[in-house]
Amino acid sequence: MTEVPEALATVLDRARPLAADAVALGPAVLGRVLSEDVASDIDSPPYAKSIMDGYAVRSADVQGPATLTVIEEVAAGRMPTRAVGPGQAARIMTGAPIPDGADAVVPHEVTVADGPGVRFTKAVRAGQFILPRGREMKAGEVVVPAGTVLGPAALGLLAAVGRTAALLHAVARVSILSTGDEVVEADQSPGPGQIRNSNGPMLQALAARAGAHPRYLGIGRDDPAVLARLVRQGLDDGDVLVLSGGVSAGKFDFVPGVLREAGVEAHLHKVRMKPGKPLFFGTRGDKLVFGLPGNPLSSFVGFELFVRPALRKLAGHAVPGPTFVPVPLTSELVTENDRPTYAPARLEVTPAGLGVRPAPWFGSADLRGFLTADALLQLPAGPVNYGAGTPVPALLLGL
Ligand code: AMP
Ligand code: MG
Description:
By secondary structure, the chain is α+β, with helices and mostly antiparallel strands. Helices cover about 20% and strands about 35% of the residues. Helix 4 packs across helix 5. The chain starts with a helix and ends with a strand. The chain has helices spanning about 5-15, 150-160, 200-210, 225-235, 255-260, 295-315, and strands spanning about 20-25, 40, 50, 55, 65-75, 90, 105, 110-115, 115-120, 130, 140-145, 165-170, 175-180, 185, 195, 215-220, 240-245, 265-270, 280-285, 285-290, 325-330, 335, 340-350, 355-360, 375-380, 380-385, 390-395. It is elongated, with a radius of gyration of 31 Å. Bound molecules: adenosine monophosphate (AMP) and magnesium ion.
């Protein structure tokens, strides 16, 4: 049985970033990863500009109380028409270009109108309230490097340097297949011995939250021929195939055999963790295949620990995760597990900072225990007896 860190390394070793395409930039690309260095095509600001509403002056003229003649008004988006000469000032708005001759801006609030002129009461410093040309960036300078995860600031910056499209790593297409003779879809009334399919919708949502494109294949009966057809379809249509159910050692757990027949090379079959021990991972060429146990929590945890990091690596993320951060408990935690355990928990903001409270859960079919969970706590095998305040490694879900 493989330990979690070694299993993760096995998965990540085989997940290679997908090729890049040119993609139109917009909110739909949030969270995607840039695969080219983007340089500025301009100096920014393109001219020395005022960062205040006020008066552009020659600092030498205002070395103490002084009154200057106002020669014109420069609005943002307009160029000054006259140079500021000795004894002169120009009214200027935020963002407007500094007129020739001026070397400082005095905020409007500290001036007094004086007929056709303006009065200043205090000395000004050369350069004050002026953003010099090219201070933010220079033409040719790389401002958004390859590997940047596109957030709002990156999208704003890319627009500032004239980009409407950029090379982005593709995101994985994830084929999702539920298996099990007992499983029926949500719009059906379960007959005797049947349960509804939680994993199909849950795994699609997990894939979407991880930034990938889910494609749902439906429910495969516990029949090798049916599974073989769906597995082939999933491998052909996706970069990643995620199955739930049928991976343990039961009589009707056909998934590993079917995958082998379909040319999938197995790399992992059991991981020492709880929930989710019978986790299968294999590859066919560059395609990744995950067989997650059918119990919803096992599928959930297996997805967050292994599938999501793989999807992130495929999408070009330099840090695929999962990233655990220590968060102090807000209540005590007493438990005992035979394997390293990933338990649902809820983050809480306390006066002392961020804390985490374990959520009650009753085994690996109990999705309700995960309903309000926004973290998974990593607990060691064996007895655990943590007092409130103990920092515990927490995986923040959806981050
Ligand atoms: P399996 O991994 O196929 O042995 O299934 C383990 C448990 O998970 C069984 O109790 C199944 O009924 C249940 N299960 C399997 N698939 C699903 C599903 N898609 N949604 C909810 N429960 C499932
Ligand atoms: Mg099954």
